Amino acid sequence: MIFVQALLAGIFQVVQMLLVLALAPGLTGLVRVVKARLLGRRGPPLVQPYRDLSRLLRKDVVLAENASWLFRVTPYLVFTAIWLAAALVPTFTTALALTATADLIALVALLASARFFLALAGMDVGTSFGGLGSSREMMIATLAEPAMLMVIFSIAILVRTTSLSLIVDFMLAGGVGLRISLGLALISLLMVAIAENARIPVDNPATHLELTMVHEAMVLEYSGRHLALIEAASMLKLVLYMALIACIFLPWGIAEPGQGPLDLAIGLVTFVLKLACGAVLLALFETGIAKMRVFRYGEFLGGALLLSLLGAIFLYVSTGL
Length: 321
Fold this sequence. Notes:
Layout: H1 2-38, H2 48-58, H3 69-88, H4 104-124, H5 128-159, H6 164-172, H7 180-196, H8 215-218, H9 224-249, H10 261-287, H11 297-319
């Protein structure tokens, strides 16, 4: 019985990893399509991100003369770290092989590792754009990571664990109710997700203007399969954050261990619908807001940190710890 459960958990884990990898370009394409429709344009087709990745994979890699081994290895490290982080987040079921290691602290560590290597690679070639993007990325990280950790601590105070599967089980069990503290944590996590995914108003993934670039500035020197891995990692990160928000604050539909095929199918359909709704909401948000100046990033992420801190304080007081 234990062997069968372990085998099923391994199969579900592989399915989830392939699922997020397959849906990531589609999610990015859906956001672009909805934004184009809202702006009155035809826009690119939904499958355009798949075509872009396929085209980049077929192209030769062009490397700068002074590029070190770190510059060559970073795309593989970044892609692997973010894909592994995405595998830790329950999407359609919590019966996964990596459930024991699916910890929010480990998730933050994997994302921080990917950011660290990407920032180093941006500075490795020695271009002004790479250094500019890396410095801005680290500035954003100094506020985004503490806010993310405070959101984790807020949830840990309520659930008494940082395990994602146990958090999902706790939320599905009911009894949480409407809490202002969880609302503050949700808003803070949404703000962090926007900053981490280089979305408007923090960054604009569709521009290459010198005064506004953050993520794009770090990857300007990449080409071919290296650039394909970087772009795929960015798409995976967007899926990761949407799945993380969904599994913590909207866990309905996620199958629990021991449930049947019907519950797993419902979990799959529910997860795809959640991603679609998230893409539409993201497109609506980006269409209705303008890009902010670089010097206001601190105010934006400082607000996220303050909200997460208030949420942690409210939960601490309400639980009587």
